Amino acid sequence: MFNKIESGLEIKQLSFKHSSQKEIFEFDFQVSSGELVAILGPSGIGKSTLLSLIAGFETPLSGTICYNGQDLSSFPPAERPITSLFQEHNLFAHLTAEDNIGLGINSGLRLSSLDRQTIGKALNDVGLSGFNKRLPSELSGGQRQRVALARCLVRQRPILLLDEPFSALDQALRKEMLKLVKNLHCEHRLLTLMVTHLSDDADEIADRVIQLS
Ligand SMILES: Nc1ncnc2c1ncn2[C@@H]1O[C@H](COP(=O)(O)OP(=O)(O)OP(=O)(O)O)[C@@H](O)[C@H]1O
Question: Which residues form the ABC transporter domain (predicted)?
Answer without folding.
Answer: 9-212
